[in-house]
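forwarding from the other thread:

> can someone predict this with magnesium ion?

sure thing
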Amino acid sequence: MPMRIESIDFFYVSMPQIEDIADGSQDALLVRVRADGLTGWGECEASPLVCIANWVCPMSHEICKPLNQAVANQVVDGPEDIARIARRVARDGLDIAQTDHTFSGVEIALWDLLGNKHGKPVYELLGYDRVYPKTPYASQLFGDTPDQTRQKARASVRQGFKAVKFGWGPYGLGDVEADRLQVEAAREGLGPEGILLVDAGTAWGDDPRKALPRLEALEEHRATWLEEPFVGEALEAHAELAAHCRKVRLAGGEGARNIHMARHLIDYGKVGFIQIDTGRIGGIGPSKKVCDHARAHGVTYVNHTFTTHLALSASLQPFSGVEDSWLCEYPVEPKALAVELNHDELALNDAGQIQVPARPGLGVEVNLGAIEKYLVETQIKIGDRVLYRSPDPNS
Ligand SMILES: [Mg+2]
């Protein structure tokens, strides 16, 4: 009997207060898919309410349709079915910019469901017969001052991290000297052996002249990569800066909404690390394709993730079987909501490494009580017709 999707639920959860900082763990959009008495979970790394609108909005025209039409009642027996659904979604939502972000969470939930059906971890369904431990880097915002950054780096080392990434906050927004002091403080806090990564958070738009003077401090303090100096589409700026790098490599790709954007950063932007968020690019299937392309071109694949351990597990699957891709992003200061949403943690082992769970699907259980606690009662209505109402997590 083919397995047919019976229900798809979107849960919008949020911290009571949303701060104006680059921390995507303050709210979340979880997706639950059910079929044949089985459940799959996924998470969109995207603005939750925009995605819900994308999911239920009435048809505007042929390629502006609510995405739920393309997924509801579909058969899911193997990875090829997920790819088929993805093609239909891409067509129905071709003229809606949010489509890939919204579908990502659904696509991830379908892989989790499929893994549960076959009793296999998702990485096995992707073709990996073994997985390798990853060295997680503690991903966090720069301190407001160099001294705060130094303290944060020291705290991460005390927690057992061998690699630390600082990003956003004041970095890239002030002068070159201020940025130099931040990088210097991060290196001091981390010690000479640690792996230092720096994320400029697209601070310099598409202007290599603003980025070039920052390279010296990054080389001097042996940063492994400089992440997102520019917006992801500024391929010429990336390539120009890459040509001036001695040891530091450029990293980017978290904003990629499809395979092509990620491949272009590799082929034309000359990044050395490609960072993919499965919750944005369209899910696990497209991420695996980017991973294969990166390997074929000598570029290192890294996950991008900043929220729950459900999202972390999803982000690890596409490159879990690649031994050379040894670094992984690991959120260290998520909000309470992101911590409470999962029962199982992908904790660091004694060697300071993490491993993708060997359990079926994504191997991470969702805490329904936390969904209930943080659920934002939401309704979308047109006239008298209710298009969306927050589902009951316990039903
Ligand atoms: Mg980043």
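The pocket of magnesium ion is lined by residues 167, 199, 227-228, 254 (CB under 6 Å). thats all i got for now
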